[in-house]
Amino acid sequence: MTRLELSNAILAWLHRAALRTPVPAFDAVPTFIQLAEQEINLDFRTRAMIRRAAQVADGQYVPLPCDYLEAEDVRLATGRELTWRPRAEMGNLRQVQTGGGPEPVVVVPGIIALPGGPLYYDVIGDLMELWPYEPPPDPPPDAYLPYTIELAYYAGQSLGPADGDTTPVLTQLPAAYLYGALLQAAPFVRDDQRVKQWSDAYASIKARANNAGERAKSAGSRLVQRFRRIG
User: Fold this and answer.
1) pLDDT digits (tens, 9 = 90+) for 125-183
2) Average pLDDT in the chain
3) Phi/psi at 56 (5° precision)
4) Is residue 132 a contact partner of residue 52, using CB atoms and an 8 Å limit?
5) Burial classification of residue 129, based on how many CB atoms lie within 10 Å of its CB (0-12 exposed, 13-18 middle, 19 or more buried)
6) Does residue 157 contact residue 168 with C-beta atoms inside 8 Å?
7) Between the CA atoms of 34, 36, 42 and 47, what dihedral angle is there, to the nearest 10 degrees?
8) Number of helices and strands (H, E) in the chain?
């Protein structure tokens, strides 16, 4: 579905030929779509939203993609997965870092920062903090390469202004945009009686889409229920 098709669908469902206000050159439908997209970025976490990016880790803080919403998987290019830790704990880890050599040693029970790149990450605004960060040798050898972070993340949807523009969610889950926009239109059309119908439809497509994303992580394998023995 494209922006034009979505706009026409919204008008059709509202039984309107147009939605214009006395304000000159103001069409309300693009606003409904924009507000619906905001809700989609808050509510949906589906496979259609996942993108991959690689970023050179040349410092303790690495910039995140501009459309970043949430991490699905963070790992080094060498394959090792990084574990999320809250910022307060990252600060504590830095405080207890000791040792006089190039290899960091951490005196926290159960946590040892091995050489070979960062182990943990946290997100601060539009930056990703890495720990431990190992500064490059000074001067760095000719063959020195900084670590590369490979990131799989949920990308925010941003529908362009042209009639033919679309987004991954609009292409694969057009009902999310349609029902989301209809909900945003309800106050404009003065409490349409179909609000509950649209709200239920939006909640249903959100739950089913997010659940489908979770099921896809198991690669189609059946989940086996296990029982704990008592006694």
Assistant:
1) 999 999 887 776 677 666 667 788 999 999 999 999 999 999 999 999 999 999 999 99
2) 81
3) -70, 125
4) no
5) buried
6) yes
7) -100
8) 6, 9
In which residue are the tokens 């830790």 written?
Answer: 85
127 φ/ψ angles, rounded to the nearest 5 degrees: -125, 150
Structure confidence at residue 27 (pLDDT) = 78
Tokens of 225: 């229920």
* Predicted model pTM: 0.77
Per the CB < 8 A criterion, the answer to whether 45 and 217 are in contact is no
Residue 99 one-letter amino acid: G
Distance of alpha carbon 4 from alpha carbon 27, whole angstroms: 13
CA dihedral 42→198→163→1, nearest 10 degrees, is: 90
Give the CA-trace dihedral at 17, 30, 206, 197, to 10 degrees.
-30
Phi and psi, residue 230, nearest 5°: -105, 130
Q: How far apart are alpha carbons 76 and 214 in whole angstroms?
A: 23
Domain boundaries, given as residue ranges, for the chain? 3-46+173-215, 49-155
